[in-house]
Amino acid sequence: MKTNILWLLCGLGLTLFISACSKEKTKPVTTTTSTLGLYEYGADSGKRAFIPVTKIGTQTVNYYSVFDTGSAGMTIDAHGIIPAAMITSSGISFTGDSTTVNGITIKAGQYTLSYGNKTGLTKEYGYLAYAPVTIGDAHGSTSAGRVPVFLYYKVVDVTSGKTETVNHSLDIFGVGPGSSYANSAIVSPLIYFNTDASLISGFKLALLHRSQFSTTGTYVSALLKIGLTTADITSNGFIMHPLTYSSVGGYSANIPSTITYNGQTISANVLFDTGTPLISTIENKLAVNSTGQLPANTQVTVTTNMGFTYTYTTTSTANLTQVENPNVTGDYRTIFGIDFFMDNEYLTDYMHHQIGLKNN
Asked: pTM of the entire structure?
């Protein structure tokens, strides 16, 4: 597998910086495949789950996007998608309220999506677009007729001030339950891949396989089920968590919880985030600045407001966890990264605005 992302730490909040453009309604379409595999990529230095994107608009492509429960919306680099002559250092060049090229409708008005916090921030610059999209590859694929996409033309590491030069280095497949702060039209693309009108809009993520992560990327079948049955939600052992609505960002994936570690228990809003590849972060407003990484053999327990409990022990190579002060980071969410998904199943019900968690 040739991956297009090797470095980012993502799955954090999305922020609006530039004026909004007009919105366009889209309609989900019926597709034929309900279960897809993902590629497990990485090693102890960081792990990712990737979903292949094999067609956008009329363009047949071969890109891998980070499967990210911590953000909402599909982002993809404009390079290789639209003519290179349209892409400049300051934007995508066209006139009017919109343009359609290679089957992709691009709307006027620039946005900036931000990933990270004050200690490390990355920004994507781009446009709201709509396009037919195919996900999956020769192992199995599914298509949707018109999906909202954030088409970016530039990525900047704010901390270093450098512009990323590797195309498609920040392609994200954000499946969170809310919407982008940049534009409420940018939502999980899976909403548009309904497999059957009788199913509940949502997805179920099976356990990621700890042994299958590799530096070449390993295809693991049947990890992602698109479309839910009532039994998925009520009869399979998931503990459901109703989500809170906000006028900005829609339904939040953050779950009220308590965190216990090193003899103390704190309240937290917890995000379970496949897009965090290496180290989980406990935000503790009472922590001293730069508390840093918990030592190996530290036990951490998270208990949600609906009674789901997960306990793990840090090691030198797995379940890495750090403690930070939100007054320093500017981010008050406690984020458990990809290691969580190797021990727990995860479900998002878009229709009823809830997240399901299950020990396994």
From this structure: 0.90
